[in-house]
Amino acid sequence: MPRFGQTAVARxxxxxxxxxxxxxxxxxxxxxxxxVIRAFPSAYDASYNTLRAAVQHAGRQLxxxxxxxxx
Length: 71
Description:
Blueprint: H1 8-26, H2 48-61, H3 67-70
Helix pairs in contact: 1-2
């Protein structure tokens, strides 16, 4: 039985996408910090642009800095 109801390929795809989005969308405008992103099951069916919008929205809600603060 697949772990978390998803294959390893699907889990790794979501992990790679979220890691890339965090690196390109969140981290440039933030101070040095440890960041944990937890994917909901709906992330497996989401497009890259949908994940990007969700990561950007989450970044705006962080108190330590956001994309708007960096500009």
